[in-house]
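The instructor's notes for this session suggest beginning with a concrete chain rather than abstract definitions. Hand out the sequence below and ask the class to guess, before any prediction is shown, which regions might be ordered.
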Amino acid sequence: MSHDPIRRSQRLNQITHAPHEQLDKAVKAHAPFETLASYRRFLSAQYLFQQELKALYTDPQLIELITDLPARCRAEQARADLNDLGAPIPAPVSGAVATASMAQALGWLFVSEGSKLGAAFLIKRAEALNLSDTFGARHLGEPAGGRADGWKRFIRILDDLPFSPEQEEQIDRGAVAAFERFNVLLQHAYACPAAAQPA
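After discussion, reveal the predicted structure:
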C-alpha cells in the first residue's frame, strides 16, 4: 500500500496556514493580555469555541478512534475561568458546527488540539495578569501527560486513518472552517459590550 509523500497532518498545517495567520493577527490586534478586561473577551471566545466543539469531543464514533477524547475538551475549564473572573457565561452564537462527518469533525479537532501547543506561550502572557492554570487561565494549562505527548498521540491516530479522497477534502474543509469560526467568535466577543463586564 503506497503512502502519500506528505502526511495528512502536514497537509492540514499547510492548507490552514493562511487562516491561522489571519487569526493570529486578529488576536494580536485585540491585545488580550494587555488588560484583564481584554482577556475576559478573549476567554469568552475560547469558551464559545470549546462549548461548540463539546459535541465532537463526546461523539461515540470519534471516541472509538481517540479513547481519551472527552478528557481533552476544555469547555469546563473555560467556564471555570469565566467564573473565576466574575465574567458572564456568553450565550451561544448562531452558526456553530452542527452536523459534521467524521472526517470534518477531525479537521475541527485538529485545530482545537493544535491550539494547546500555542497555549504554552499564552499562559506565560496570562501570568502577567496574575492568572494561572488554577485561576482564570485553566483552559490554557498543560494537559495531563504534557502538551507534546498529547498532540503526538492525536496526530499518530489522525495520520494512520484510511481516508477516501472525499474524506480528505472533508477534513481539509473542517480544519479551515474551525479557524474561520474562531475568528467569528473572537470578533463577536470583542464587539459584545457585556463580555468585558463582571456579572
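Then share the key points. Residues 19 and 68 are 28 Å apart (CA to CA). The chain has one domain: 8-192.
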